Amino acid sequence: MAAPKRGRSASAQSKPGRSLALILIAIVALTGGMFLSGNKTPRLGIDLAGGTSITLKAKADQGSAVNKANMDTAVDIMNRRVNGLGVSEAEVQTQGTDNIIVNIPKGTNSKEAQQQVGTTAKLYFRPVLASQPSVGATQSPSPSASPSGSSKPSTSPSASSSPKEKASSSSGSSTASPKASATSQGRAVTDALKAGSTPTPSTSASGSSKASATPSATPSASSGAGATAAKLQAQYAALDCTKPAERAKVGGAAKPGEPTIACGQIHKVWYKYVLGPAAVDGTEVKKAQAVFDTQGASGWQVQMTFSSSGAKKFADITGELAKNQSPQNEFGIVLDGEVVSSPFVQSAITGGQAEISGSFTQQDAQSLANMLSYGALPLSFQEQSVTTVTAALGGEQLHAGLLAGAIGLALVVIYLVAYYRGLSVVAMASLVVSAILTYVIMSLLGPAIGFALNLPAVCGAIVAIGITADSFIVYFERIRDEIREGRSLRPAVERAWPRARRTVLVSDFVSFLAAAVLFIVTVGKVQGFAFTLGLTTLLDVVVVFLFTKPLMTLLARRKFFANGHKWSGLDPQSLGAKPPLRRTRRPAGPAAGPVDPKEA
């Protein structure tokens, strides 16, 4: 029974090259992926890369008070918005009872994140009564007409598959439709506001569009509506949306059930709008996502899915708008008082799904979908201060931390060389492999999950040096114990491994468990320390199993180590080894005299 066991052991010992080849392939593959992805260095947090710190002050909104519950909800939504844009290591936390501090590191999409963190995201779908490019207050109202070479987004049912509907949804402003005169547009606005409904045109023989509405208000109500219409017309005529101060005065204060004027930037051109009462609330949007139209010419789109009640409202308003002429066949998507898109419709959009298409860039589409998906903030926020954080202080701290790590690593190497001599080569090679894997994986995790290296994470990596070195020491001491028992090196390496393996696994499990608990119960930068500590602990197990043990098996076959050279660190004499364990034959017994033939 012993012979087969020895055979299996010899077979296992003769193939350490497989493990070394496996970890080498893993290193090459990960390094290749790092270079191919273009991320040759780990992403840095705000303390190392610099960034922006924003202070927001909460204000009570209609029906919402500034309290802990609403502040916590706002922090959660801001976090999800920033993470949805792929910004790593952003910190959102409350300060006091009504302030929120947002720290956004410099990097991809950081500017978009700054714009979105404090955006309330009150979204409404309002019918467009009038619109025109805003080039000054002296221009008289005219129909919505895009500048040459540009087109407004269009909206089409996402479930539609007929070629005709696809062509109409992607044709933008090139769709042939009669243009309303400025006078008729003004009458349409007035009539619509008086009637309290979306105007429905009746086309005359000459082709001009006139709006008609069924009066449903009492004379006194009509008089009030007329005054409101006159006021809006005056504001609309004087509005210049190219001026930030004027844009800040319009749109946001209007209630959902009231008409309003608003500004919106469509393809880098500012438009001004007269909008009817909100037909659909943004809370009716269940899901929104940015997708690229690979089958048509629409490019980037935002696909929306409505709730059941929202689907009915959206079908009703699009059905009414489809009967009108431009621009009253458009609806404005109004976000925090600003028109972010004004697509036109050609037929009722049913089924609860719609897509907004036009000349969106990927960034524009993802930004709009992000705010629609994560909902509105329960409070309004006023920007108190915006501070640029430089990386100078973090750079100094990083330099000091790296210096401390280098000193610690040098002390570990000196100890290994002085105490373990030749075995220190195995330890240092294993540390190098662990460092390469840690660096490459951190670089890949930046774009993959948003991991960013901050100062606490650097501390976690430095602490991991001790954890990794401890695993080597455990194994080396087990091998030395076997040699002290009188065994030669090759069997000592194999017999020491099971006991060392158990100790290493238990030790690393405790370290990983501590890192996991710390990651779960903490927030902010401390999570960076916990994540790095857990990652390096897992890599320690990989390196010990796939590199340290196979390398030790190969070196045990070399005469320098096998013969116990005094600089190998495995000299039996210096270790106080016992004589070799060998079986001795028992004597046959005392010499006996001649055997009596009778006894034989």
Computed CA radius of gyration, to the nearest angstrom = 37 Å
Count all strands and give the number.
16
The secondary structure category is: alpha+beta
Give the helix proportion (percent range). Answer: 40-55%
Q: What is the end-to-end distance?
A: 38 Å
Proportion of strand residues: 15-25%
> What general form does the structure show?
elongated
Number of helices: 18
Instruction: Calculate the mean pLDDT score and round it.
Output: 74
The unreliable regions are 1-13, 137-186, 195-221
Q: What kind of sheet is the major sheet?
A: 6 strands, antiparallel
Description:
It is a single chain. The protein is α+β, with helices and mostly antiparallel strands and 600 residues long. 49% of the residues lie in helices and 17% in strands. It has 18 helices and 16 strands. It has helices at 2-13, 16-37, 46-49, 68-84, 110-117, 163-170, 182-195, 219-238, 244-247, 308-321, 362-374, 392-420, 423-449, 455-484, 489-521, 525-555, 559-562, 572-575, and strands at residues 51-59, 91-95, 99-105, 123-133, 154-156, 200-203, 209-212, 260-266, 269-275, 280-281, 285-293, 299-306, 331-335, 338-341, 353-360, 380-389. The strands form four sheets. Strands 4, 8, 9, 10, 13 and 14 form a six-stranded antiparallel β-sheet that branches. The protein has a four-stranded antiparallel β-sheet with strand order 2-3-1-16. A four-stranded antiparallel β-sheet has the order 5-15-12-11. Strand 8 (260-266) and strand 9 (269-275) form a beta hairpin. Helix 12 (392-420) runs parallel beside helix 14 and helix 13 (423-449) packs antiparallel against helix 14 (455-484). The longest helix is centred in the C-terminal third of the chain and has 33 residues, at 489-521. The protein is elongated and about 110 Å long. It starts with a helix and ends in a 25-residue tail after the last helix. Residues 1-13, 137-186 and 195-221 have low confidence and may be disordered.
